[in-house]
Amino acid sequence: MTEDILTLLKENVIQGRVTQDDEGFDEGMVGQPGVSELIEKALAQGINPENIVNKGLTAGMNIVGQKYEANEYYIPDMLASAEAVGVAMEILEPHLAKSGIKSKGKVIVATVKGDLHDIGKNIVSMLLRGAGYIVRDLGNDIDPQVIIAAVREEKPQFVGMSALLTSTMMHMKDTIEALTESGLRDKVKVIIGGAAVSEEFAQGIGADGYGADGFQAVRLVEALSTNVES
Amino acid sequence: MIQNGSVGGSFKPLTEESIDRIHQTAMEVFEGVGFEVNSEVALGFFKRAGAWVDDEKHLVRLSRKRVMELIEMAPSEIRLCGQDEKHDIFLGGQRVYTGTGGTALYIYDPNTGQKQLTTLDDLKRISKLVDQLDNIHLFMLPTYPSELPVEQVDVNRFFAALDNTTKHVMGGVYTLDGVKQVMRMAEIIAGSGERLRQRPLISMITLGISPLKMDRQYGDLVVTIAQAGIPLVYPAEPLCGATSPVTLAGNLVIQTVDSLIGVLLAQIINPGTPAIFGSVASSTDFRDLKYLAGPVEMGLLNAAGAQMAQFYKLPFYATGGMTDSKVLDAQSGYESALTSLLCALAGANFIHDAAGLMEFALTTCYEKYVIDNEILGMVMRAVKGITVNDDTLAFDLIKQVGPGGNFVTAKHTRQFMRGEHYQPLLSDRDRREEWEAGGGKVTWERAARKVKELLANHSYRLPAAIRQQVLSEIAGIVD
Questions:
Q1: Is the ipTM above a cut-off of 0.85?
Q2: Pairwise CA distance, residues B277 & B263, whole Å
Q3: Can the peptide bond before residue B211 be classed as cis, meaning omega within 30 degrees of 0?
Q4: Is B243 touching A (CB cutoff 8 A)?
Q5: Domains, chain A, ranges and CATH?
Q6: Which of A127, A167, A169, A199 to mutate to test the interface with B (most CBs of B within 10 A)?
Q7: Which of A60-74, B13-27, B434-448 is predicted least confidently?
Q8: Which domains does chain B have, with CATH numbers?
């Protein structure tokens, strides 16, 4: 029974179905329970939340990743799955906390001052949530000082910044300098992304990493997390 | 021979019914959804023009009646002038012109296989190169000089171009002060503000944010440019599945609304402002949502955009002729050719980005300008189509030559061969032995030789007195 519900959960993550009303990747799934219904059911049956995460959600996302690598899944498919996992994690969070399991980490994201192009940043947020991180999205056109205040208050492990325009990307540098001046630079890893920036630019302004797309951003955070722990 | 302004329109991806449905849906968006305007001054203009404005959300809605009234005020034909009158172009109808585009951050050198940040010197050299390439009709500022602070960028980009080519110069702009400096510089070159409005030597490109959003800076810039009566483009860049519906029809709805926002605002500010309906519509790589510069769907979208512009009787700024390839290979050629051709055959008035851009439009390359000049020569020939009349049917000649004769020596052949047949400037048509004897050069190598040749020629310079006045009056120009 436990196995059945976790298998169903895994399959629905792969299908990217949040609720029973959602269509999946395959046709004819509307009406069958989605991830949120299945999570409630699993909790009601007393299944260990850590098992739900590992055997249901993470197992599903691993397969989604494989499908993406095989060119079978595209970004919108990935995002549907990430959203399903994000919703599941929200339901699970209090239960995980009760069992003494810590979250993977907190990330503050923002599109920098002067820039209103925030689609890439929104995708990164969804994928990070899907990977089990807590994400605080400050929005777009965000002044360095707003980011500083958020870092003080939220105490994240990561700050992610995006910019699309060549005219705004230098505000990433300003923000990093402001973090240094406030004595907060050592407390966080700074990662950047966006059409205008590059690995070289990231190194030049003293960021800790650059992600060319949402998946690289998640991989980057995972890699930097390992470094933090070790 | 400059071959520009030929009339396209033979390719129509949209039926009349499809055009009407896209139009009706766009009007429903204007009335029922609205768009976000983050410039206070632009918002004020919309309000005074009778729009419904939600101040808190910065949301503007307009009735379809008002939208159509404002479109009516916009000129359906726009003259963009070169310093040399032979380069004047007359956008409108289904006449086709081509141009460069931007804005690239990097320049690729096929000799080394490396790319690096572009500099102001690159921009000057590209201006000089394009000045000599006849199938590129308009010079749009293609690069962003990496070494300059942003407040010096506008004035130096425009000066580099105006001092190296007599073609019309169009360019994106970055700061309000920069725009004012550029307008003053253009006035000096044209002779006066009035002369500049009569013969606009420059035009400016602003930018909307798809879907349905105008940012503060570009809203302010539209106001400044329209008040000065300088021709402007407010292109929209809906990308399938990211900033527009994934369907091409849905993309066209967003593209239509987004581009019209700028046209409407310009008419509210200054009725009759030359405002060009612009499309940078394309799709994304669904694997990572990268902007794509070479997909066939981009060609279809911009061809359809030309039809929408013709429906609204507005001059059209299309996007075509680029590639996502990192090198000058087969993909570079076929993507550039296919997207340019689709736009041109649909009668897109000005195909921007049609020369010199590769790698998602992030990178430019000297050799690619020469290759694209060849592609565009062929494209313009295709636009011209097939002329059928007594002279071209040549019945009398056929009768005279008769069975088993030949047409090599006929006067008719000499009379028509150049006009009817595009003669390549770069393509290789040698027999294998000749080609091998010539070093067996591939396309980019032949293009590189041409680049060297053209850059060694004498450069155009602004007339000395004018040049001196510009340099002494306008601050920040790096000569």
A1: no
A2: 7
A3: yes
A4: yes
A5: 2-98 (1.10.1240.10), 106-229 (3.40.50.280)
A6: A167
A7: A60-74
A8: 6-14+72-384 (3.20.20.480), 390-420 (no CATH)
